[in-house]
Amino acid sequence: MSQQETHGFQTEVKQLLNLMIHSLYSNKEIFLRELVSNAADAADKLRYEALTNDALYEGDGELSVRISADADKGTITISDNGIGMTRDGVIEHLGTIAKSGTAEFFNNLSGDDTKDSQLIGQFGVGFYSSFIVADKVTVRTRAAGHSADEGVLWESAGEGDFTVENITKETRGTEIVLHLRKDEQEFAQEYRLRSIITKYSDHISVPVEMFEEGTPAIEASDDQEAVAAVEGSWKPMNKATALWTRNKSDISKEEYEEFYKHISHDFSEPLSWSHNRVEGKQEYTSLLYIPSKAPWDMWNRDRKHGLKLFVQRVFVMDDAEQFMPSYLRFMQGIIDSNDLPLNVSREILQDNKVTTALRTAVTKRALGMLEKLAKNDAEKYQTFWAEFGQVLKEGPAEDMVNKERVAGLLRFASTHTQDAAPTVSLADYIGRMQEGQSKIYYIVADSHDAAANSPHLELLRKKGIEVLLMSERIDEWLINHLTDFDGKQLHSVTRGDLELGDLEDAAEKEAQEKLETESEGLVKRVKDSLGDKVSAVKVTTRLTDTPACVVAGEGEMSSQMIKLMEAAGQAVPESKPTFEINPEHPLVARLNDEQDEAVFTQWTELLLQQAQLSEKGSLADPSAFIKLINQMLLAKLN
């Protein structure tokens, strides 16, 4: 019994279809690449499923994608005999875009057609590119292993809804018919389709075929030999050889780039790639790509990521995350192993020694690609860092073996450049270290401006000592796992003593000791006034222009780490800061002369809250701070 249902697209899908129909793509022929790519994936998936269930082939093991056009009707048909879809699968996959995230897609639109067209590929919306050239799309499909009467017809004009109906389909797989718009009839010409296939789909390992008309027989004559009739037949238009199995010298830059777009469904060019064949104890081929654009769901913990896994050229699985650590989840590519069993499962992958060895090798190669990019093309590396830098910062905590290599790839803003752009590597910093400097100094704050203008930097600036400026949420977590680099300790300027060591000369040390001795009475008076609001009061070694600051003691949580834990809903143990005062500042000198204890307490409290506001960017009780300032202003006015 035929059962037709009408479904509405998600609101965001309607918006996207409207966007596509109005020529968001600058290159309309892309639609064919996307549909052929999807059809080839369907064939790959059937080949894998059939390893354990040969009946899925239904007596037809010759997998292919076929394309035909009817210029009179203005239609293009793309069909495959791959895995196919059930009714539920059709509604799920053709009724939504990437299943989620399309609202975020629209938040990213800039209004610039060229820029916006690059976004589409990041949202997994290849099938919908059909509507660039078609005003109606018809899909007939049947899942492999299901009966002929379980076929499904899906149809839409891209105007807000689609219909789904049960049909009888004798063959498995999917057939897509595009009803071309009047102004897109050029795509119904076979020569046009052939040129697109050759341009975009030559690398696909499944034959992409078009029908070649036969020729009639020619009888013999005085000046002509007899020629036998040739029947029409389907002929492959592509090489149908897995690109990674070919010699690197035989593969063009354009072919590598098109293969990237095929496996990633990204419309942007990759930044770099590495094609490598290993023989010996292990035999495998890897083809890895560094993308130029981050996908919209990079931070979604449920997002599937990883390489495409092939075993002896047979597709096994998408998103084989076992071969790439999480902090390199932006890498795209394939790995083809001769050492894994063909019926490999995720359980086998997790326990297999070969998998561990491959993961180690592929991780090293990915890091090598990034190192090469950073060394040879700083501008491209900055493009990479802007998209994926925060992901790479997860590396030192996740990968102890490669921690030093990952650390070498990190980039930070610095007082050396006076720029918010993170362009400074740890090696750059060490190369500029002053004679006698043994530590890499850094500060973590809520924003670049807060870090760059922090009073904790005053003495270091005066001495010309460079400080790394960190202001991303992940930085505090990163720095808890990255304690040293190239034999140099990383030291926070907001924690404990500055520990300048040889950077302090004898005269400075003597002057500091004298100041501490002279200020013992003031320090005790301030501590008695503040009581248990602070853990200790001391004379500062880091301030020159600011009256006071708060610092975390050694082994205590920094204010940034406390914020992170509180934002995550975790209980944070109570901690009290060390309060450092600058006796040479006019305010503190005036405080030292104050005889009225009530006024002294007010000024001491004001300086503490100022210091806390500067350090944390907020106060636990801002209204009390305002009340205190108002009281002191009134006292002055009176």
Structure description:
The chain is of the alpha+beta class and 638 residues long. Helix content is 37%, strand content 20%. The strands form 4 sheets. It has a 9-stranded mixed sheet with strand order 1-6-5-4-7-3-2-8-9. Strands 16-15-18-17-20-19 form a 6-stranded mixed sheet. A hairpin with a 4-residue loop joins strand 15 and strand 16. Helix 9 (353-376) packs across helix 10 and helix 21 crosses helix 22 (622-637). It is elongated, with a radius of gyration of 33 Å. The model is unreliable at 98-102 (pLDDT under 50).
DSSP helix fraction: 25-40%
Placed side by side, the strands forming the largest sheet appear as: 1-6-5-4-7-3-2-8-9
Biggest sheet statistics: 9 strands, mixed
Count of DSSP-assigned helices = 22
What ranges have pLDDT less than 50 throughout 5 or more consecutive residues? 98-102
Topology:
Layout: E1 4-8, H1 11-21, H2 30-49, E2 65-70, E3 75-80, H3 87-95, H4 102-107, H5 113-120, E4 134-142, E5 151-156, E6 161-167, E7 173-180, H6 190-200, E8 208-212, E9 233-236, H7 253-264, E10 272-278, E11 284-290, E12 307-311, E13 314-320, E14 332-337, H8 346-351, H9 353-376, H10 378-392, H11 395-398, H12 403-409, E15 412-414, E16 419-424, H13 426-431, E17 439-444, H14 448-452, H15 458-462, E18 468-470, H16 475-481, E19 484-485, E20 488-492, H17 506-518, H18 520-530, E21 536-539, E22 548-551, H19 559-567, E23 578-581, H20 586-593, H21 597-616, H22 622-637
Parallel strand pairs: 2-8, 12-14, 17-18, 17-20, 21-23
Antiparallel strand pairs: 1-6, 2-3, 3-7, 4-5, 4-7, 5-6, 8-9, 10-11, 11-14, 12-13, 15-16, 15-18, 19-20, 22-23
